[in-house]
Amino acid sequence: MCGIVGYLGKNNTKEILLSGLKELEYRGYDSAGIAVLQGDSFESYKAIGKLVNLEEKTKEFTTDGFAVGIGHTRWATHGKPTELNAHPHLGESSYVVHNGIIENYVQLKTKLQAKGINFLSQTDTEVIVHQFEENLYDAKDAFKAFSKTITELEGAYATLLVTKSMPETIYFAKHGSPMLVGVNDAGEKFFASSDSPLIGLAKEVNYFEDGDYGYVNKDELVIYNKNNELVEPKFTSLATDKLSAQKDGYRFFMEKEIYEQSDVIADTLMGRLCDDEIIFDELDKSLFDGINEIKLCACGTSYHSALCASYMFERYAKVRCSVEIASEFRYREPLMSKDTLFVVISQSGETADTLETLKMAKNAGLKTLVVCNVDNSSMVRLADACILTRAGIEKGVASTKAFATQVTVFWMLSLYVAKLRDALNTDGLKHQIHLLREIPTSVIVTDEMHERIKRLSKRYLHGHGFFFIGRDVFFPLALEGALKLKEISYLHAEGYPSGEMKHGPIALADPELFTIALLPQHLLYEKSKSNVEELSARDSTICAISPINFDKADDFIPINVCKDYMLEFFEMMVVVQLLSLEISIRLGNDVDMPRNLAKSVTVE
Question: Which range of residues forms the domain containing residue 166?
Fold first, then answer.
């Protein structure tokens, strides 16, 4: 969840660290800090709240010449969001930053306190720096002390450490949480949790594998793997264009990303559609040999795209499909058979719960596939096969274009499997491919639509909750619509299958209950309409989204008349995204960085 940056070089260390942290704001945070070591002098600054507070604290601080620095944006797990709990954490002569959770920190802390060491924070991270300094006292060698410290940690971590005993060195270790190092021709070294802080600074990057640890200095980048073997870095080129990470005049990144969906879906489709087949060059067709079930596993928005996929795999490919919530699947001792293709879905490729289920599937001998937006992420490197969604950088914490591209990939993949299994005839496949080509047009946001939703949003700022309801594949879209609204507006919202209203939830119906009804023309329209009429009869306030005017709706948001329910799906997806956005803006919320949430959830 948190963000790490590090820098070793002669340029403005403070500005490089602050700029890198700004690029990681999308991950979510409630405090931030930096520490800079120049010669034998440390300077450290921390602030709660937004980065502007840290920038204000550091405005008089400058560096002159070579320095090493580390920075961090923290999302509170152990201890409240306070300056004392913010990173970097200080020992007697060392500083550390850390993402993840040290599961045995209580045991380590107890032993250190028994030796007279005082702790300033409530965090698990602080044990790392004190444990390191204890080991340094015995080893008299900083790298040996750091290596020993890493072996004593249990849990997930990406960590950087600097110490006065080696003032021109940064020590690093990665296990479970993402981290990479970048270099350039000037000999500078950069660390970060993801690519974006390094764009324009580093020429090449090395993505650390789990268990990697080592150090950098002016002359060296030294990496050891989990088996304590010295390994060469595996450098890949880094993009140099930051334009996709800018707002381009939109009020929020989330708004920009909703508008980008037409372009990114076109990228998702590119090179994968022929007249009568779907092409995934990245897949070996043998991946599906002997497969009798597809099991999809994900969290949050990605779980909703997986639910959408389950309808398509069974409807088009005629293959049994099940969907799992990753955080539950991990602990229920699941039965895993080798005729199952295990598919994980994640925007970042680093989602901790989902990553662990992928490891479980690998250990059980299952074939594995990841649908992901980030190349070289942990899941991409671990799975047998990967399909990249090509959504580009998504900075809004509430996912939009990542969801859209995931569903697009699954629509294509279900047809790809259908052809392998002869489950869909040639004419049926051609028809579906023709529909796929129309998605980019279906998700274009018109000024008329956006203005209508903007005006309508002022009527939905109160009440005791929202029901988003839909049938079939529109049920997971209802779940996603409700999630978008509660993520950024902080209003209570639930998604339900339309037919489930009469089985309990309808008891809540009254004028202060807002029902967002998804009414596609081409899929169970009459049944869905009947369910909405039941709520209307109980005086619930109805907002209908449909190509067909619904006379019992209090509010109506029209979509275009479409050829197929899946195109209606994508049009309605844009509507619920915009509705959530505009309600949140009217409430005065920070749409891109909603409270308590993070973009990349790398802890349980």
Answer: 3-241
